[in-house]
Amino acid sequence: MSRSRSSVASDGHDRLEPRLLRAVEHDDVETLRQVVNLARENGQFSDNFLRVGLMRGCDRDKIAATQYLLGLGAKTDVHGKRLSPLLRAVERNHPRIVRLLLDHGASPETTDKKGRTALMTAAWRNHWHILQLLIARGADVNAKDHKKRNVLHNLAADKQCDWGEDVVELLLQTTCQVDGANGQDGLGRTPLHWACATGKRRFAEMLLTRPQGPIVNVDAVESRNKTALHLAIAHGRDDIVQLLLQHRADIDSRSDGGWTALHYACDKGFEGIVRLLLHAGAKINSQLLTGVTPLHLAAQAGHTEVVQCLLERPDLKRRIRDNFGSTPFLRAAQFRRKDIVLLLAPFNNVDALSVDARGACEGFEATIVDFGNFHNENRVQKMSVFNLLFGRDAENPRKQAVITVPEDSKVTDFRWIHLPANNMAWVEALLTKTFIEEGAHDVDSFKGLERSFRYQHRGQRTHSHFMRPLCQSTPRAPRGRSEDHSTEESVVGDQPPQILINGEVSETPNSPGASQRGRKPKKHGIERTDSYSQDDSKGSQGKKTNRTTKRGKNPGLPTKSNAKTSANEKHRSPLSLCKDPVTWNVCMFMPYLHFETAEGRQKMQEAIQRAETLNFPSMGTSRSPTRDEMLIRAHLASSSSTSLHVRRTLDQFFYPNIDTQIRDQDQVVYRYQTKGQGRERYWKEPKIFMVDQLWMWILGTNLIVTSFPQRWEQPKNDPLNVLDGIIEDINSKTREPVRSIYDLAITITNRCSGVFDRHRMGDEEYQFLDMFESSIGIATDRETVLFSRFNRASAQASSWLKSHRKLSRYAAASSQGEATAMETDTTILDMTEEKDGEQPLFVDNLLDIGQETDLLSEAKDIRDELNMIRTVLQHQQHVLSDLQEVTWDIHHGQHRLQHEARKRFKEQQRTIDMHLKDIDRMDKQAERIYSSITDLLDLKQKHANAFEARFARDQAAGTTRQGKTIMVFTVVTIVFLPLSFISSFFTINLNQFPRAADGDPQLDLSYVAKYTFGIGFGGSSTRASVDVAKEEVHVEWRGREGVGDRKIASYEY
């Protein structure tokens, strides 16, 4: 003991913290007391001195030393970012120290530098007893750290998960908030969000099945509107997803951007979760705000299993476009997902076709025309649309039955494929098939073709869907150049491109625009081919070399092996010319005029109405549907995006958003064929004008795709069949042969724009413009007849007025004259009626305007329909002008082809201009008829007004005469009424009357006359004077009242 004291005394002036710490570590209270005393002696005793010892005691679980220091007044709480003794004891799991500190006033809400309380630390360290002690001592279970997380947040967000379920159960028995404003952290997440994000299924289950306290909301959203289900899917927690679905989590809730649970699962590629969500009823076609579907996300991310899972669902819509016009197929192609490109290809999804869609595909025939080295210069093939788009090879089911791109054919230079209906689904399937056959490398070019469908006009009615007239070109990356770019550079270098004309090699003139267009797609093609192709460079070069040799495109020196090929090219120089690579695709939409029978149009309209109302006849009691009916039912019934563009009448073309059913039944040509002069001819089937659409895509230099509709139940022998007419023009020996794909395009547009060419047709039944001229001639003749009738009625009215004016003079002489005038007037009217025979009286002719209004309506209808036809022709002018410019830009520098194309385009424009001139001439004729009828109605109105004024004057004169006659009768009545009254008074036998002396009862005449005439005339004259003066007094009185009113008004003013 003496040694210890001497040691302490010798070191009195040294720092005492080390001794203090050793004393605390040995839990030696006596030594601790000596150190404290020494510290007091030399001035080292302070709160900080005690805190150092207390921290060591709490850290090493030294009860005695800790209690001694607390007795000396050691502070249990610290300021600043330093760790408190309580937190140190909690971290070291010393329950007795914690209890001791709490007994000495330690605050359970003390926090560390992250804002975590002792309760959070005890729970996180899995110190159950300390946690229970803190809860019992009133620790705030809803306290939050600097991230605004409470204890359950921290446990759920912990990735190590070193704590047990007992801790969570203990906390859930308290009032700890798990939802609402108090249950959300800085990110707006609840403990359930964090449990789902970190994969703590048991924790999430305990939160969802909390026995007491606030109940967790399974659909609570965080700051980005994500639910727990979204977070669980995003982190691939399929077990938690199943748990949330069992607790009825909202499967269709949307986060920011419109993301659903299925979107997250498809984007991450979790096939199991996708199946869970689909089984639970997730909407498979839901779209983000950008229009992206789950299939879009799975396709672009390359999740093959997820795509296959989605394709198993029959309600999947594979062709939905996002806001950028991209389909899932195009997304897969953009991101080089070749396996998914094949999965989404239409020919690999035949099962997705409905019964009606497949029946329509099998019922309609597509046409393939190959141009090249054939016996008749071309080969025409007919096959079903189904076989073209979806058919498989009978010998090798892995291969397609038809190859659309003619590159592998040795004899085919270019190909024309025609689809018999304006069906976007068919066209997309065909273009997609071509894109895949070309290697799916030119994504930008294909996207340009897909973008062309965005020019569709959409409306509320079925006939409101049509393509806006346009013609545009999109860049195309040459496939051969992009596949073997390095080889080309080594062989060709910077040499200008060469073409073969008449067996001689010539250089193409340099063009700045052409060189730029050639470079740009070339660069893109290189990038796509290198990253997408699975073949090595040697194989690609070998294929390129072989194909170049076979096709005769090698710009190098001719060798012995291909000398024969060069010699054979002499008679096919134009075809060799069109084989030069072109870096543009051309897309064109153009309306053109056609016809349909009235019966066929009525059947088509009834089929459309049944499809719109889903009112289909039962299969057992009715006939089997035709191919036209199946096509309409497949693409119009219960479809959110209409892909079929039906044929439109002339009025439906011009008024796309109104119901034109009544107008369609009253076309000018229809009325001409069923009424008037047209009825005298024998019309088997009355016809009406229709406006069809020509869709055309020129794909490079060897493929052209067209689509235009055919008539309802297309008859075999149709003189105006557009397809047969084009094939006839191609095979015609009197026309220039079709040498390139652009010649073929001009031939197709020429036939469509000249269907009703008046100089081409010879059948009177189809001369619709002649029907318009005949209708105008009939209207002109009717206008002449009506004007002549008006002149005759006007002359009759003038004659009647003259006769009536002469006879009225006799009327003033005597009543006998009036009677004679009336008889004469009646005789004139009778004579007029007998003279006219069947014609009505002139008064009726002047007042009846029914025929004029009918003719006015006829002229208006003619002008309206001529304006509609003019609009169609003007659209054709603009589209063909654009096609001409595009063709010239593509073949800039090729003077021969450009000259031929210019000549053909001029012929087309000349034909359309001639039709427009005819339309304008007929419109002016109809306008003159309209103006003449308007003038005639105006003349009738003016004549009726004059005649009515004359009748009113005569009526007023007659009324005056009648008034005078009444006045005479009134005067006579006034005079004789008193006389008769007095005379009747004297007939009464009264005793007061004077009698004669002889007793005679008769009164004396003088007596009676004196009273009768005296009183009678006196009263009559007084009454007459009053009646005469009464009107004058009334006028004078009204005049005085008016003067008084004016004076009052002026005074007030």
How would you describe this structure to a colleague?
The strands form three sheets. Strands 1, 2, 3, 6, 9, 10, 11 and 12 form an eight-stranded mixed sheet that branches. The chain has a two-stranded antiparallel sheet with strand order 4-5. Among the domains are: 480-490 and 512-547, no CATH class; 768-968, no CATH class; 988-1052. The protein has 45 helices and twelve strands. Helices cover 57% and strands 7% of the residues. The longest helix has 92 residues, at 895-986. It is flat. Strand 4 and strand 5 form a beta hairpin. With 1053 residues, it is of the alpha+beta class.
List keywords for this structure.
1053 residues, disordered N terminus, 8-stranded mixed beta sheet, ANK repeat, CorA_TM1_TM2, Ankyrin_rpt-contain_sf, two-stranded antiparallel ribbon, alpha+beta, repeat, Ankyrin_rpt, 12 strands, 45 helices
Would you tell me the overall average pLDDT?
78
Structural class: alpha+beta
The geometry reads as flat
Helix content: 55-70%
Largest sheet geometry: 8 strands, mixed
- Amino-to-carboxy terminus distance: 130 Å
Strand content: 5-15%
Annotation, overall tally of beta strands:
12
Treating each run of at least 4 consecutive H or I residues as one helix, how many helices? Answer: 45
Q: Radius of gyration in whole Å, from Cα?
A: 53 Å
Uncertain parts: 1-12, 480-580, 806-840
Indicate the topology.
Layout: H1 2-10, H2 17-25, H3 29-41, H4 47-60, H5 63-71, H6 85-91, H7 95-103, H8 118-124, H9 128-136, H10 151-157, H11 165-172, H12 191-198, H13 201-208, H14 228-234, H15 238-246, H16 261-268, H17 271-279, H18 294-301, H19 304-311, H20 328-334, H21 338-344, H22 355-363, E1 365-372, E2 378-384, H23 385-389, E3 412-419, H24 424-437, H25 443-451, E4 456-457, E5 466-467, E6 470-475, H26 479-483, H27 485-491, E7 498-501, E8 504-507, H28 512-532, H29 537-551, H30 563-568, H31 573-578, E9 584-597, H32 598-613, H33 627-636, E10 648-649, H34 650-654, H35 661-664, H36 668-674, H37 676-680, E11 687-699, E12 703-707, H38 722-731, H39 741-753, H40 768-813, H41 815-836, H42 842-847, H43 850-890, H44 895-986, H45 1005-1052
Parallel strand pairs: 3-12
Antiparallel strand pairs: 1-2, 1-3, 4-5, 6-9, 7-8, 9-11, 10-11, 11-12
Helix pairs in contact: 2-3, 2-4, 4-5, 4-6, 5-7, 6-7, 8-9, 8-10, 10-12, 11-13, 12-13, 12-14, 14-15, 14-16, 16-17, 16-18, 18-20, 19-21, 20-21, 22-33, 24-25, 32-33, 36-40, 38-39, 39-44, 40-41, 40-43, 40-44, 43-44, 44-45
